[in-house]
Amino acid sequence: MKLPSIVCYVIWCSKIVLAESRGSTRTSPTYYKKGPLQTITGAEISSDANDSVVNYSSNWAGVILNPPSSDKPFTSVSGTFAVPAPSVPSGQPDGKYTSSVWLGIDGVNNTNAILQAGIDITITKAGDQAGYVFGAFYEWYPNYAVDFTSFSLTAGDVIAIDITTTSSTSGVVILENVTTGQSISQSVSAPSSSALVRGTSAEWIVENFEGLGAALNFSDFGSVVFENCAAGTTSESWGISDASLVRMKTLGGSILTDVEILGSSEARINYIQ
Fold first, then answer.
1. Considering the domain boundaries, does residue 205 fall inside one?
2. Structurally, how many domains does the chain consist of?
3. For the ranges 8-12, 91-95, 125-129, which has the lowest average pLDDT?
4. Sign of the dihedral through C-alpha 236, 114, 118, 217
5. Which of 72, 153, 154, 235 is most buried, by the most CB atoms less than 10 A from its CB?
């Protein structure tokens, strides 16, 4: 578990977000936690143009893939995406706005654990100024996220992530900044005997996550396109053609995101408010 600390915002703009500003990398740890899928009770289940099942959640938006059978759990998940340039949602007051882009294993059918890795996006608005930072992380829920503080990120960088479990209590996370060539590999282990990864789902997600035990203000992340999406068992690899979609929706009924599967290994998530 990480202790709370202050994040230093070093890139500032004269407007809410300038197109040429590319943000900076988070250099101090934070007290953030991603969590399991929170389905909105009574949400409709419909089909999009690709006949994908669509659910609604208060914290996740993206693509969820179940394994081919219960005796063939997922042991790996991978994908790439470009770091988005965030903004403060229109008409919102001064403050901090966040979102997280990640991929992982479990968190839907098995809510006791999630092994995940990705990037956090934080934008702070003060009057007519706003600055944003990025932070790369891995997390074995229910532990808090752990920062890769030396992993540099700017808007537009292409990030590749590969997560592999070697058992229900251990695994390896690999992050690569394809644009800069920087990569990092991290061995990970379950935080407790009850936080076992079961491989019951793989997911590619934008999340409205928690800080200090409460959901934070959700940032306008623009658009995230996951490419090269794959989930593997010990003997096979699967694309996302048969995945289900989850769109983010407030408890008040406002839909915040749109999600679309673009191909067998590609999906797009848009902020639509």
1. yes
2. 1
3. 8-12
4. positive
5. 153
